[in-house]
Amino acid sequence: MLPFALGFLLVILQPSTGQFPRVCANMESLLSKECCPPWDGDGSPCGELSSRGSCQNILLSQAPLGPQFPFSGVDDREDWPSVFYNRTCRCEDNFTGFNCGECKFGFSGLNCTERQVRTRRNIFQLTTSEKNKFLAYLNLAKNIPSEDYVIATGTYTQMNNGSNPMFRDINVYDLFVWMHYYASRDTLLGGSNVWRDIDFAHEAPGFLPWHRAFLLMWERQIQKITGDENFTIPYWDWRDAEDCGVCNDEYMGGRHPTNPNLLSPASIFSSWQVICTRSEEYNSQQALCSATGEGPIRRNPGNNDKSRTPRLPSSADVEFCLSLTQYESGSMDKMANYSFRNTLEGFADPQTAISNPSQSGLHNALHIYMNGSMSQVQGSANDPIFVLHHAFVDSIFERWLRRHRPMLEVYPAANAPIGHNRENYMVPFIPLYRNGEFFKSSRELGYDYAYLQEPALESFQDFLTPYLQQARQIWAWLLGAAVFGGIVTAVLTRNIKACWKKKAGTSSEIQPLLIESEDYNNITYQSNF
């Protein structure tokens, strides 16, 4: 029955977002540097005959980068994706996809004109049936090959500049593990040399937009392989948690009875093989992760280095982080102070917002606490808890966006670490997305969070907060203005009453003989000042 189900699901697969489109992973496309596949609906490149899009030259950002990466022309990810392709589909209206065959996030329908907003829910609020379905979807993704995407197993140089393509198939779940690895891997400099201070998805402004796009693509892929268009990623609200509430066989896998570093045999995830976890081995071989199995998922929650991560994040940590008004600051990397992004990512203290990379707060704290596959950046997405965790991190990002309502210009346009400027394309996504495109409300991207919808008072408080903060900054001026206004009003009232009293006791016939009415008005207003 399972082989039949898998075969049926393969039939209904449609194009989605990922790494290298299969139709462009060939010598002809690499040598021509063009990835403009036809849309099945009309057979034309990018669906041009149906006005969905057209094949265009890629427009790269020319904004200066930060000093963290002092090289040029040594990494395939520089000016993504120009090393591989310099012409791709540019889609119109609400169309997207590597061939303009899909709808943008938040839209659906034959012509992508129908708006939709789906709700991500707390995993503990799912029914037993919903929870079991989520687990089954994860396992299906781990066992069904990606029809539309392949991964690169060599650099462009190792491919002889395109004349010797090096790609391989991969299952749907591992496709996303590989993409996370590829965005965060070290730069291979030749020999045994590498450059470690580089990451296209972490330690810089793009951390939150990149993972937001990543989750949306992952969510859409699950919707496609299952046919469940209403599927959304659940989140794990870990605030004030005393232990790993999802680390049991009912949810994401309990502890192995004899080996605390492994998962319980009763969990479906105990049979999963991890990929892309041996970064030092790849570096020494000057090779890329080839996505071969490297052993089971490892996890030993709570038995981590307490000097680095003494506890799980608290509600107070989150609230302090949300109070920070600057999205990014200073060097815009893990040394940034008073940066909302750096504090939420976990390189700054969640009580002071001062950078302290020796400690792990908020987002980073969860990764370290899991003490296993989740704790190593490049391979962290192997553990399915990754998606639950990052969905909640994304919800905190969403709360900050709603509270502070930043303009797009708040996201740095220049001088951020490589790949993180506002107009840089995210590595390694095709179709192309810029960082700034995901610096917006989740509702505009077609999803929301259940706990942000209730109670209404919390949303109203988030709405008022930026205005109250502005009021606090000018409270002294407001107080002075109020006192002055009160004095002016009192004097005006007293003088007007005195004038009417005087008028009441004076004949209208002789009043002009006392003073002209124009002079009377002048004296009255002058006395007020």
UniProtKB/TrEMBL annotation:
Q: Which SUPFAM superfamilies match?
A: Di-copper centre-containing domain
Location comes to: Melanosome membrane
Q: Which GO terms describe its biological process?
A: melanin biosynthetic process; pigmentation
Q: What is its EC number?
A: 1.14.18.1
Q: Which CDD domains match?
A: EGF_Lam
Q: Indicate what this protein is called per its UniProt record.
A: Tyrosinase
Gene it is expressed from = Tyr
CC per GO annotation:
melanosome membrane
Q: Which cofactor does it need?
A: Cu(2+)
Q: How does it sit in the membrane?
A: Single-pass type I membrane protein
Q: Where is the signal peptide?
A: 1-18
Spans traversing the lipid bilayer: 474-493
Q: Any idea which UniProt keywords this protein has?
A: Copper, Glycoprotein, Melanin biosynthesis, Membrane, Metal-binding, Monooxygenase, Oxidoreductase, Signal, Transmembrane, Transmembrane helix
Annotated Tyrosinase copper-binding domain ranges read 202-219, 383-394
Coarse class of the primary localization is: membrane
Q: Which family does it belong to?
A: Belongs to the tyrosinase family.
**A GO molecular-function term, please?**
tyrosinase activity
Q: Name one Pfam family in it.
A: Tyrosinase
The annotated region (Disordered) lies at 287-313
Q: Does the keyword Transmembrane helix belong to this entry?
A: yes
What organism does this protein naturally occur in?
Oriolus oriolus
